[in-house]
Amino acid sequence: MNSVADVWTNVLQQLKKDLSETTITTWFDELTAVDIRENTFYLHCPNDFKKRYIESLFIKNIKAALQDLFSMEFEVKILDEAGLLEFQGGAPKKNSDRFTYEDFTFETFVVGPSNKLAYAASMAVAEHPAQNYNPLLIYGDSGLGKTHLLYAIANVIRQNDPAAKIVYIKGDDFINEFIELIRAGRGSDFRAKYREADLLLVDDVQFVAGKEQVQNEFFHTFNNLYESGKQIVLTSDRPPSEMTLLDDRLRTRFEWGLLADVTPPDFETRLAIVKNKAAALGMELPDKIASYIAENVTANVRQLEGTVNKILAYKDLLGSEADEATVTRAMQDILKKSNEYIPTPDNILDYISKYYGIEKEIICGQQRVKDAVAARQIAMYLIRGMTNLPVVEIGKVFDNRDHSTVLYSLKQVEKQMKKDPAFAETVKEIKTNINNRH
Ligand SMILES: Nc1ncnc2c1ncn2[C@@H]1O[C@H](COP(=O)(O)OP(=O)(O)OP(=O)(O)O)[C@@H](O)[C@H]1O
């Protein structure tokens, strides 16, 4: 074996021991070997769907084949188009490369009551940037389409103005980049990158809260772009009013434009998403099965998509038809993987009551005993984080407390967790135990 291509041919031969010919031709046909560097075997796959599919199901087979051939362990990395360019040093890493993904458009976004405001606002921003809604902040729980809408906006802006400088960044990457460049004395590069943007998209902006210098930098970037008439779109897992560690001056700015929420989709929207997704994958799903999925997978769209992908996999790999048994199996797999158990406030209170040895009535009541206050605040914090309950509703669970009291408690817990790692560990442990249904 003298070239990477030879290695790949041999790997494919080895794979035949575990996988059928059809599986190999269906899923591996677009893969090509790129290089072997420092115990990592690099492959390229231009088809994003197949890439993700192989990553979730077949990486272990490829690793095992390499181990058989070389008697040593390899990492396997599959590069997409942007990744390949970057790997080959042909192009600098551009965040906006991500917007070539055709799947994340307004056309592929299913609109329903749960997301119609966010959708309409995103369309308005895409067609008329920096006019009516600046910034646009889309908030809601994970997997409900926030990033999809960000990409859709970027796709339209790119179409309308191919020269537009679009900068996309995740809140936590913004922080890491900031720290790295400031440390390296290249703060001006950092500033230039963001302040020259025509469109700034920040996904999961809640991460900047609580980090003083980062917030300060973000504040100046924000003002600069805003004053130059550039559009800013942000997403977050909660509204600014609930970002307890956020600087007030940023909070007010986030609230200047439009706040649009996305909530879990209703049955009709879920059904449409399942059908669209199946059609996009070239699969015909009987109506009864599509409804069955939409009835049972309710928490988020990522899981709906995962279920449809799994059903397709079973069909391809095992020849199983999409009947209720296959679907149930696919759903169980997905829910297990994402550890999707949403406790009720009562489940959380039961566990905290047991953990602290304090009765539930006391936790929820008005007593100001030290331990009860701590247990109460943690309970509010976990109810907010682990269920979809809005703060007003959480207040009702705790003897009709006002929502501002709940917010104060959330802030206290967040602060304490930052200050005291042991306390943070305790909160984490309680959460894990609730998830494991102890
Ligand atoms: N209304 C919708 N119509 C079609 N697809 C959707 C819709 N909502 C979400 N999706 C799909 O669900 C998946 C998850 O959505 P997305 O990544 O946008 O979620 P998110 O809200 O940004 O979550 P996170 O906060 O975890 O990043 C994506 O593949 C997206 O295309």
From TrEMBL:
An example Gene Ontology molecular-function term: ATP binding
UniProt xrefs under PROSITE patterns: DNAA
Listed Pfam families? Bac_DnaA (PF00308), Bac_DnaA_C (PF08299), DnaA_N (PF11638)
Organism encoding this protein: Dysosmobacter segnis
The AAA+ ATPase domain is annotated at: 132-260
Q: What is this protein called?
A: Chromosomal replication initiator protein DnaA
Record region (Domain III, AAA+ region)? 99-315
Q: CDD domains, per this entry?
A: AAA, Bac_DnaA_C
The role this protein plays is: Plays an essential role in the initiation and regulation of chromosomal replication. ATP-DnaA binds to the origin of replication (oriC) to initiate formation of the DNA replication initiation complex once per cell cycle. Binds the DnaA box (a 9 base pair repeat at the origin) and separates the double-stranded (ds)DNA. Forms a right-handed helical filament on oriC DNA; dsDNA binds to the exterior of the filament while single-stranded (ss)DNA is stabiized in the filament's interior.
Residue span(s) of domain Chromosomal replication initiator DnaA C-terminal = 344-413
Family of the protein in this entry: Belongs to the DnaA family.
Query: Which coarse location class applies to the principal site listed for this UniProt protein?
Result: cytoplasm
Instruction: Enumerate the UniProt keywords alphabetically.
Output: ATP-binding, Cytoplasm, DNA replication, DNA-binding, Lipid-binding, Nucleotide-binding
In terms of SUPFAM superfamilies, this protein maps to: P-loop containing nucleoside triphosphate hydrolases, TrpR-like
Quoted from the entry, the domain comment is: Domain I is involved in oligomerization and binding regulators, domain II is flexibile and of varying length in different bacteria, domain III forms the AAA+ region, while domain IV binds dsDNA.
* Localization annotation: Cytoplasm
Binding residues for ATP, per the UniProt record? G143, G145, K146, T147
Query: How does this chain assemble?
Result: Oligomerizes as a right-handed, spiral filament on DNA at oriC.
In residue numbers, the region (Domain I, interacts with DnaA modulators) covers 1-82
* A GO CC term assigned to this protein in UniProt: cytoplasm
Region of interest called Domain IV, binds dsDNA, as start-end residue ranges on this chain: 316-438
GO terms for biological process, alphabetical = DNA replication initiation; regulation of DNA replication
Highest taxon of the lineage: Bacteria
